[in-house]
Amino acid sequence: MFADTIAGALRRVGAATLDSLARLGFAARFSVAIVMHLPGAFRRLSLTLREIYFEGVLSLVIILVSGLFVGMVLALQGYDVLTRYGANESLGILVALSLVRELGPVVAGLLFASRAGSAVTAEIGLMKTTEQLSAMEMMAVDPLARVVAPRFVGGIISMPLLASLFSTLGIFGAYLVGVRLIGIDAGSFWGNMQAAVDFRYDILNGFIKSVVFGIAVSAIAVFEGYNARPTAEGVSSATTRTVVASSLSILALDFVLTVFMFRGVGV
Amino acid sequence: MPVVETAAVSPTCPTEIAVRLTGVTFGYDRARPVLRGIDMTVPRGRLVAIMGGSGCGKTTILRLIGGQLRAQTGTVCVAGEDVGALDREALFALRRRIGMLFQFGALFTDMSVFENIAFPLREHTELQEELIRDLVLMKLNAVGLRGAAQLYPSELSGGMSRRVALARAIALDPMLVMYDEPFAGLDPISLGIVGQLVRRLNDALGITSIVVTHDIYESLKIVDYIYFVSEGRIIAQGTPDEVRASHDPFVRQFVDGQPDGPVPFHYPAKAIGREFASHVR
Amino acid sequence: MSRATLDLWVGIFVTIGIAAILFLALKVGNLASVGSTPGYHLQAAFDNIGGLKLRAPVKAAGVVVGRVEQIRLDPQTYQAVVSMKIDRGFQFTKDTIASILTSGLLGEVYIGLDSGGDTKMLADGDRITKTQSAIVLEKLIGQFLFDKAAAGTAPTAGGPAPQPGAGSAAAGAAK
Fold first, then answer.
1. What's the rounded Cα separation, in Å, for the pair A49 and A44?
2. Strands B73-78 and B17-29, sheet pairing
3. Which site among C9, C24, C31, C70 would you substitute to test the A interface, given the most A Cβ atoms closer than 10 Å to its Cβ?
4. Strands of B32-43's sheet, edge to edge?
C-alpha cells in the first residue's frame, strides 16, 4: 500500500519531468523556427506595422497614464523620505534612477504582457481553434511567417518604445508634483538628475532591459497561442499562462540583468 | 483526360490517378490507431465521398492527403507524387494545386470576404491589383456572393461563409478540392445550394473532389462513388446505386439511420447486470 | 481601419517613442556632457580610500573633470591604487595633490585634485605621488579623545578642532 503510494508519486514526478523536457525541447525548436522566419517579418513590413499598431499604439493609453501616476506617487513618497535627511533636492535623482533603471522597463513590461501579450495569445489561439492556421498551411502559406513572425517582431519593436515613454511620463509626473506642487527648485531638480544619471550605465542598460523583456513577452505570447489546445478552454488557459509566465520571466530576468549590469557601480 | 505531368514519377504513384492511398495506417499515439490499412483510389475528375460515423478517421484521411500528417505505413499518392516522401518545398508546391474547405469555413476573421479570396492569389501570384479584383469577383460570382465582397466573416450566415470558403478553395484553380464536412450545420436550403455547387464546380472546372461527410442523402444525390469508413477501415464502397441496393448491414444501418446495428448504440461497458446490481449485494 | 490611418498611428507612436528616448538621453542622462568622451588615465595610491566607489567623480575646484575607473589593492605596499580617467582638455601639474573628500557630512565620496606650481604636466599613465587618504571618522574621534586625555595631564595643546587635512595627517601619524 505504502510502496504503491511512493511508486505512484515517483511515476508522477517522472511523467512531469519528461513532460516538461518535451515541452522545453518543443519550445527550443519553435524559437529556432521563429528566428528562421524573422527576415520574413521585415519583408512583409505592412503586416509587422499592423502588429505594432495592435501591440504598441493600443497599449499607449495604459502606459502613458500609469507612467504619469507612478512618477507622481514616487515624487510624493520620495519627497517625504528625503526631507528627513534634508536631501529633498535629490528628488530628481531618486525618481529618474528608479524609473530609468527599474520601474520603466519592469512595469511597462508587466503592463505590456497583460495588455498586448494576452491579446496576441488569444488571437493566435483562436485562429488555431477555428482552423485558420490549418487553412493557411493548406494554402501553402506558412503560418509561422504570416502570423507568428510579424507579431513577434511587432512586440520587440513596441516594448522599448513603450518603456521609454513610461519613464519619460513618470519623470514628467514627478516634475509636476515635485517642482510645481511641492516647490522644489526646478534647476536643482534637473541639474542633480543630470549629474547623477549616466547615459551608458543607467539609460542604455534600462533600454537593453526593455528590449530583453520585449523579446521574452513576445516569444511567450506567440508560443502559448500557437500551441494552445484548440478549444475555448485551451485558449483561455493559454492566455492566463502567457500573463503569468511573462510576468515571472520579466521579474526573474530583471534580477539577472541587474546583477550583471549594476554590480559594483556606486550610485 | 490528357496527362502532361512531368513531376518526379515514383513507380508506386501513377500520374493518371488523382489520389491513391495504399495500406495507410496512422495513429496519434501508438496505443490508439486511427486508420488501420486504408486502400482508396480517386480517379481524376470524379466526385468521391468518404462517409462514416463521427470520429472514425475521415478528417485524418484528408490531412494525410494534404500532407499535414504523414502515414506511418503505406503510401499516399497525389497527382503522381508520394506525399510522405516530399520535402517542405515540394509539399508546398503540391498544396498550391489543392484546395481545401474546412469544416466551418476557417475564413480569416480579420479580413473582408474579398481579401479572404484574394489571400491565396496575393500570396502565390504576382498579379496586378485589377486582375486580382476580377478573379476574386469571378470566384464570388460562381458561388453567388459577388454582392457580399465587402462584408466581414462575422456578418455572414453559416451557409454563406461555407460558400465563401468554397470560393477561396478554388481561387488558384486547383486540380483537387477536399471538403471537410461541407454540409454540417446547414439548413436544408443552404445544404442543397452547397451540394449543387460542389457538383457543378467539379464538372465545370474539371477538378477532382473528395467530400468527407456523414450526410447520406445529399451525398447519394451528387457523388460518383462512396467509401464507408468505420474504426479505421474501409468496410464498404460503391456507386450511389450500388449503395442504395446494398444489403451490407453497416451500409443499411447508415443509409436507413438505425440507432443500433454493426455500429453499437452503447459505448463498450461492463455487463449491465454487474453494473447496476453492485449496491444491492 | 484603413491602411492610411493605421500607418499614421504607427508613425505617431514610433516618433513619440524615439522622442522619449532622446529626452531620456539628453535631458535626463545628459549624454552630451558625459558619455564616452576621450581622455587620459592617471593613477594614485592611497593608504585608505574610505567609501570611494567606481565611477565616483574626480573634481578640481569643485568642477567634475573625470571619473574613477578602477580600484585595486597593491599586494606589496597594501595601498589602494585608484585609476581615474580625466577628460581631455584638463591638464594638471606634476606636483598635483589628490585627496579623497566627502561632499557634506553624508554626501558622495569623490577625489579632489589640487594643482601645484610645477611647470611639467602629468601625461597619460602617470602616477600622482602626493595623496591624502580619506578621513576615517572612528580614527578621528579616537585621536580627538587621545588629545583630550593628553591635554588633561599637560594643559598646553587646547587648540581648535582639527581641520580635515590636519586630522588626516594626524590619523596617519597615529597609525
1. 9
2. antiparallel
3. C24
4. B32-43, B17-29, B73-78, B81-82
Looking at the structure, tell me whether residues C15 and C69 fall in a common domain. Answer: no
Which CATH class for the B17-259 domain?
Answer: alpha beta
Residue C157 domain boundaries: 137-174
Q: Is the separation of the CB atoms in A253 and A213 below 8 Å?
A: yes
pLDDT for C168 equals 45
pLDDT of residue B2: 46
The pairing of strands B208-213 and B176-180 is parallel
Min distance A3 CA to chain B CA atoms (Å):
28
Contact B97, B124 (CB under 8 A): no
Could you please report the per-residue DSSP string of B102-162? -TT----TTS-HHHHHHHHHHHH----HHHHHHHHHHHHHHTT-GGGTT--GGGS-HHHHH
Count CB pairs under 8 A between chains A and B: 46
Interchain CB distance below 8 Å, A57 and C10: yes
Global pTM exceeds 0.80? no
pLDDT band with cut points at 50, 70 and 90 for residue B230: confident
Q: Is A139 on the interface with B (CB under 8 A)?
A: yes
pLDDT at C167: 42
Q: Kindly state the percentage of chain B with pLDDT values over 70.
A: 93
* Chain A positions in Cβ-Cβ contact with residue B107 (cut-off 8 Å): 132
How far is residue A247's CA from residue A57's CA, in Å, rounded to a whole number?
A: 21
Give the residue-averaged pLDDT of B192-209.
87
C-alpha cell belonging to residue B181: 464536412
Q: How many CB atoms lie within 10 A of CB B90?
A: 15
Residue tagged 580627538 (cell numbers): C144
Residue A141, min C-alpha distance to chain B (Å): 7
Same domain, C75 and C116: yes
- Contact (Cβ atoms closer than 8 angstroms) between residue A173 and residue C30: no
pLDDT at B279: 64
Give the mean model confidence (pLDDT) for residues A142-164: 92
pLDDT at residue A221 is higher than 90: yes
What domain count does chain C have? 3
B100: pLDDT strictly greater than 70: yes
Contact B106 A139 (CB under 8 A): no
Cα separation, B200 vs B96, in Å, equals 21
